[in-house]
Design goal:
This protein has 7 helices and 19 strands. By secondary structure, the chain is an alpha/beta fold.
């Protein structure tokens, strides 16, 4: 029986012909990294390869690592196997990994979204025989509203809060969602502040992407200086002392999970904005169809339900277990 070009092992997704792993979750000699989120880029590998934009991100997060980078569509070979990185649209620097060998083409999507967010390089489907796809939101209940309408809603919410004497706090993942929200804010409304963790990522991303003006909210900034401001911060500070300076405020979460009724209440927030850096149900189906793939391997998310549906549509679909399960970046 022919060995698949990509296999699932205890360390990660493995290309035996090249001796290379894709987003491995245990230490390996040679890793190709799709993007900078912690569940896909881990410490301990001997050598890393990633996209130019993602290189400073993983170096900031992982410290002194042996890492190099390539551009979009730039072919590099390892032991006769060809690799290319193509935009995944998930966050800035996120890649799909195209693996080609002896006429066989596989795509590992990493995390991805098909709609353009205004800051990440747009997702481009790649023709292949087999695709490894996430299905974080792989049930029909998830269908994203027009992103422009959501960003307009955020700006109107901010303006209304300001008129009512309130600051506006948005909980968003420090890498990806925070920059996406910041990109679409209207700085004419008022001042924009970000948590230092968001600022650290912004400093890197601003080297190759344009962001509106913002200020990192440090201890030196006085409470009266942030009146009417919008503050972007990770959700980890929600129940801590860091937010005291932001009072009086109303808060919101920006996440695909806000599409489920009750999630806003369970997260004890005032407002929920449905905005995700992953594909919804229709985007998943359209993206897979665009690749022409016959074989589909479903990872992290609604894997069983999504694979079952694909099988009913005539795909050779199955599921595989991975350790890509970080939920705060949705």
């Amino acid at each position: 029986m022919k060995t698949p070009l990509l296999q699932f092992t205890s360390k990660g997704i493995y290309c035996a012909q090249a001796g290379v792993y894709l987003d491995p979750w245990r230490p390996v000699d040679h890793a190709i990294i799709s993007h900078g989120h912690a569940d896909h880029s881990r410490y301990g590998h001997q050598k890393y390869i990633t996209h130019h934009y993602n290189l400073p991100i993983i170096k900031k997060r992982l410290g002194a690592i042996n890492a190099s980078s390539v551009g979009w569509g730039e072919r590099f070979s390892v032991n006769g196997v060809d690799f290319k990185l193509h935009p995944a649209g998930h966050i800035v620097g996120s890649s799909q990994i195209l693996v080609s060998h002896k006429g066989e083409r596989w795509v590992f999507t990493g995390d991805y979204k098909a709609h353009y967010d205004g800051i990440s390089d747009a997702f481009t489907p790649q023709k292949c025989h087999a695709i490894i796809t996430e299905c974080t939101f792989g049930i029909p209940a998830f269908k994203w509203p027009d992103p422009k309408e959501i960003h307009d809603e955020i700006n109107r919410w901010w303006f209304d809060n300001q008129q009512n004497g309130l600051n506006s706090v948005v909980f968003a993942y420090s890498l990806g969602k925070a920059q996406r929200i910041l990109k679409h804010l209207n700085p004419e409304i008022g001042k924009i502040f970000v948590h230092p963790a968001v600022g650290a990522m912004n400093d890197i991303i601003a080297e190759f992407k344009t962001l509106p003006p913002y200020t990192i909210l440090t201890r030196e900034i006085k409470k009266e200086d942030i009146q009417g401001a919008l503050i972007i911060t990770p959700a980890a500070v929600q129940n801590g002392s860091w937010l005291k300076k932001c009072q009086p405020y109303t808060d919101a979460s920006a996440s695909g999970w806000m599409a489920i009724r009750g999630n806003k209440r369970r997260r004890s927030i005032d407002r929920g904005f449905v905005i995700s850096d992953h594909c919804d149900w229709d985007e998943l189906l359209q993206s897979i169809e665009a690749t022409g793939a016959e074989k589909v391997i479903c990872t992290h998310g609604y894997t069983d339900l999504f694979a079952k549906y694909l099988s009913e549509q005539g795909y050779d679909a199955r599921t595989e277990k991975t350790q890509f399960e970080e939920t705060d970046n949705e």
